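Lecture notes, part 5. Sequence design as translation. It can be helpful to think of inverse folding as translation between two languages: the language of shapes and the language of residues. The source text, in structure tokens, appears below.
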């Protein structure tokens, strides 16, 4: 059975402790958590103690952190994992946290994608929505499924609406204004032929 030796024990301030086990595994604890297990440099942990530290202490704290993050705003699984990683949680604790919030349906990529499409489809093209969701870590298969289910907008009508909002008139626009508006709509992910067709009307 593997043993884990605390090869580094460093006070990080603000009540936080940085641990290094066997010179390769890094963990971050609060001082109270470290004191609870009588941790100090040179202390040797059994496999059972290490698992308790990783899952029962850090894993549960990661789950609470995940809950707090999701209470503030809805996130995709990818976004949540990245946020927990930035908060210095180890991979095993991140897995515990993600499993917990998924089990209780606090985290649901399909719900996120459907809501995102429903909220933004009046001002963004299908291609733009697809790219935006992909950047948030949603799988291509799930994006395609949710777009098929949720996307009901007429993209040419969307372009017309955006032109009206920008007070754009093809009759009075000069070459520079026309180009600027065309590029704006392309950035929104609209098809060039649709843009040209609507702008010529």
């Amino acid at each position: 059975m593997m043993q884990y030796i605390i090869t580094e024990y460093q006070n990080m301030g603000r009540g936080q402790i940085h641990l290094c086990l066997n010179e390769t595994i890094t963990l971050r604890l609060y001082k109270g958590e470290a004191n609870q297990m009588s941790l100090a440099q040179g202390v040797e942990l059994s496999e059972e103690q290490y698992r308790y530290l990783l899952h029962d202490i850090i894993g549960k704290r990661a789950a609470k952190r995940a809950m707090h993050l999701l209470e503030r705003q809805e996130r995709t699984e990818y976004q949540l994992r990245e946020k927990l990683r930035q908060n210095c949680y180890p991979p095993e604790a991140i897995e515990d946290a993600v499993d917990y919030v998924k089990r209780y349906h606090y985290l649901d990529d399909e719900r996120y994608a459907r809501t995102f499409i429903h909220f933004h489809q009046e001002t963004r093209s299908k291609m733009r929505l697809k790219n935006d969701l992909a950047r948030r870590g949603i799988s291509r298969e799930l994006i395609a499924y949710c777009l098929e289910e949720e996307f009901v907008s007429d993209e040419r009508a969307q372009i017309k609406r955006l032109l009206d909002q920008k007070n754009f008139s093809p009759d009075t626009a000069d070459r520079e204004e026309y180009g600027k508006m065309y590029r704006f709509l392309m950035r929104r992910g609209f098809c060039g032929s649709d843009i040209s067709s609507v702008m010529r009307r």
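The translated text above is only one of many valid answers, since several sequences can fold into similar shapes. The CA atoms of residues 117 and 150 lie 7 Å apart.
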